[in-house]
Amino acid sequence: MNAELQTTPAAEPPQLDAARQAEEIVRQSGTSFYWAMRRLPEEKRNAMYAIYAFCREVDDIADGSDAVETKLSRLGEWRGEIERLYGERPRHGVAKALLEPVERFGLHKEDFRAVIDGMEMDAATKLRIADMTELELYCDRVACAVGRLSVKVFGIPDDVGVQLAFAQGQALQLTNILRDIDEDADRDRLYLPQDLLHAHGIGGDDLSAVLGEPALEKVCELIYDVARRRYEEARGLVMLCERTDARPAVMMLDVYEKILGKLGRRGWRNLKEPVGLSTLEKIWAALRHGLF
Q1: 127-146 residue pLDDT tens
Q2: Which of 17, 105, 208, 276 has the greatest count of CB atoms below 10 A from its CB?
Q3: Which residues have a Cβ under 8 Å from the Cβ of 184 and sit 6 or more positions away?
């Protein structure tokens, strides 16, 4: 071939390349989130993928096998990256993918910081939640803060969006907590509040013994009831939103509320019995909301 006719494919603009990296992180995670966001307009979809990719990055640090000091150091690096993001000088590919969403949708730095705060809680070698106030703080950091970022992207007005982020964030995170009690215990984590456990006569620091206590069912039922109320609140709030704006939020509500229902039917005696949705159920949820 004549050398003059050879061409080198043009490199993608850095922002587009970063957005595709973020999308790939989301796609490979296998999360329902990927399908919930798939049919959003491109700028909103890219924003949500970048937000999720950020959450995936810091969550992987907190759940990793590194020493606590290393985890905290790496999360500290992400704190610096968020500062650089708002100075328009990020270095990490995922942070670069957030540049345009921050500018376009007015995402708040404090919400990214809150997510990192939550990951620092999870990074500890041992985690216990003192009471419902601390549980609400944890949920706010790891779930409601993500909700506040999300409703900005969806275009839901702040007066409804902040309330929706609170209700839905708690609903989803409490569902995760109830679903993962046994798995979290293997990491020496227990998110059920200590004051509720003590009120039901459950004490001690041996989680295998705590999880074997008959009275644990009552504590789980209390958290289950809180989650159910939050789903009801969230569904009431999405009725105040434009249907197309709220569609991804409604799909996530549908998916996680089904999981909560399955947990309630399974009960709290056999915590090792896994609960989740089948592939068919996830596909149906996506089809129902027109996300394929």
Answers
A1: 999 999 999 999 999 999 99
A2: 105
A3: 177, 190, 191
